[in-house]
Amino acid sequence: MHVSRTHPGSHRTGRGADATGPLRTLTHVTTDAPALLPALEARVRETAHALTPACPCGAATLADRPDATVVRHAGTVAKAHAADADPAELALRVTAASRLPGVLLPPLAPAPAVLHGRLVTFWPHGTPVDPDDPDAAPWEAAATLLARLHRTPAPTAVPAMRGPAKAALAVARLRATAPGHPATAPVLRAWSALPGWARGASAPPDTTTLCHGDLHLGQLIRHPAPDGPWLLIDVDDLGTGVPAWDLARPAAWYACGLLPPEEWHRFLTAYRAAGGPAVPADGDPWPALDVPARALTAQTAARAVTKAVLADRPLDEVECSLVDACARMAAVRPAGPQGRGRVSPQ
Amino acid sequence: MQCPKCHAPMHTYNRNGVQIEQCSGCRGIFLDYGELESLTRLEAQWSQPAPPPPAAPQAYPAAPAPAWGAPHGGHGHYGHHRHKSFGRMLFSS
């Protein structure tokens, strides 16, 4: 067992890599700078060896995408953030992670380093959710962690949560990549009906609640591995904003008929039981969820259509269900502060 | 044309084949005679294929869902096995 003070874990990315399991290298290598990956591997080895002198050197590339390159060496994970990551903002987000024990995985080093022009942060490894067994997804833990995050005053000044800005980016890519695709028009129509804050075009109505900004099942790890408590990882989009955004991806999956009602019910019930402020304690949560869930549906649809066009393939059944939901949104106005209203008389 | 309320220029948009004028300043909308009725008729036709989720019999207490949601109650893509594509989606931004 090579786990000592620090433990395996992943950064939205630790698919299939756990404390003792086989290490996998993702095959889709997209690092722009060829020198970054070897340098990052050397750096994580150095950091791991400082923590674990008798290191068996289990190493793996957990992710290598334009927005993040993540490598693991024994119990240490190094993440090279997106080339355009803002140093001051990232430092604030990492600091916040170091001050929210029991909610966010704390970093190994308090400040980002610079390597080949990229900001790099170091984290203990933990056990991710098994991507081959999503039925074992810890919906209650995810909801409880979010409720705690949303209830905690920001421990330091943090920038705005980046969810809406990331959604806007996905829609901009759709516009540029697939202007003539038949799915593009309904997605853009759903997107343009949203209020400005949900499109990243104006300030959000909530500027104090701390939010994760990019919740999905890859953002949870057990630390210490293999059966420590669940924690949230990936602070790249962390910041203040509308907390319903963090519930909106599961909400969108449920609304699109992808996530079974039982799982959505478990998630929502656990969030409410933990006193989460994003939705009322009982009754219909949709007046609060409607706008963020529309935005996440449009974002996910935009990414799906963009990927399908780049791969020159048709949309699959799941992707079509996202586009269909966008098309249905045209008939119903987004919820305002007073709730939602139908456009057309029935 | 100019907005009768704030006097900013108005731009013409085509919505479902109906020309409408929207003010670039106050975002107010001007409709010609009969256009509101045309829009209402078109919107009603558009939404007909997608009625709100029916109160389908479920073993679980029916959770509220948005009106734009997929009809639940047997037509979802979930079931005994998850669609692979959704399995990947669960783990990605």
Protein model, in words:
The complex is a heterodimer of chains A (346) and B (93). With 346 residues, chain A is of the alpha+beta class. Chain A has two domains: 36-128, Phosphorylase Kinase, domain 1; 134-329, Alpha-Beta Complex (Aminoglycoside 3'-phosphotransferase, Chain: A, domain 2), CATH 3.90.1200.10. Chain A is 37% helix and 12% strand. Chain A contains nine helices and ten strands. A five-stranded antiparallel β-sheet of chain A has the order 1-2-3-5-4, with helices on one face. Chain A has a three-stranded antiparallel β-sheet with strand order 6-8-9, with helices on one face. Chain A has a two-stranded antiparallel ribbon with strand order 7-10. In chain A, a hairpin with a 2-residue loop joins strand 4 and strand 5 (118-124). In chain A, helix 4 runs parallel beside helix 8, helix 5 (184-192) crosses helix 9 (317-329) and helix 6 crosses helix 8. Chain A starts with 35 loop residues before the first helix and ends in a 17-residue tail after the last helix. Chain B has 93 residues and is of the alpha+beta class. Chain B has a domain at 10-47. Chain B is built from two helices and three strands; from the N terminus they run E-E-E-H-H. The longest helix of chain B is centred in the middle third of the chain and has 13 residues, at 35-47. The termini of chain B are far apart. Chain A binds chain B through residues 12, 15, 129, 131, 134-135, 137, 166, 214, 216-218, 253-262, 264-265, 268, 284-286, 289-290, 293-294, 300, 303, 316-319, 321, 324-325, 327-332, 340, 342-346, and chain B through 40, 43-44, 46-47, 50, 58, 60-72, 75-78, 82-83, 85-93.
